[in-house]
Amino acid sequence: MIGQKAGTRDGYGYSAxxxxxxxxxxxxxxxxxxxxxxxxxxxxxxxxxxxxxEKRIADLLAFLKQxxxxxxxGG
Length: 75
Ligand code: HEM
What we know:
Cytochrome Bc1 Complex, Chain D, domain 2; binds protoporphyrin IX containing FE; mainly alpha
């Protein structure tokens, strides 16, 4: 997901808000987004109150980066 454009993965019906967000997922964009998805992408259908803890955000990024663009765990 990191390095890709928001709302562009095949096989999922994203909201117009996510498709038109213009976001490119990098560390800073993700950290900003996950603190409050609905502020960053008004109209998103992702219902999540947000995560503020910096350590947990860093852990989440590390977790997500384990997976390649196909969702497979890299070696
Ligand atoms: C820490 C937990 C979560 C993380 C890291 C996360 C991350 C993300 C990211 C990065 C996207 C954009 C994907 C893309 O651009 O392809 C997304 C979309 C989405 N997520 Fe989450 N999410 C979390 C929790 C949740 C929860 C709890 C729900 C539902 C109960 C949810 C539902 C969705 C939905 C429906 C979308 C599509 C949004 C749209 O099209 O507007 N997510 N999520």
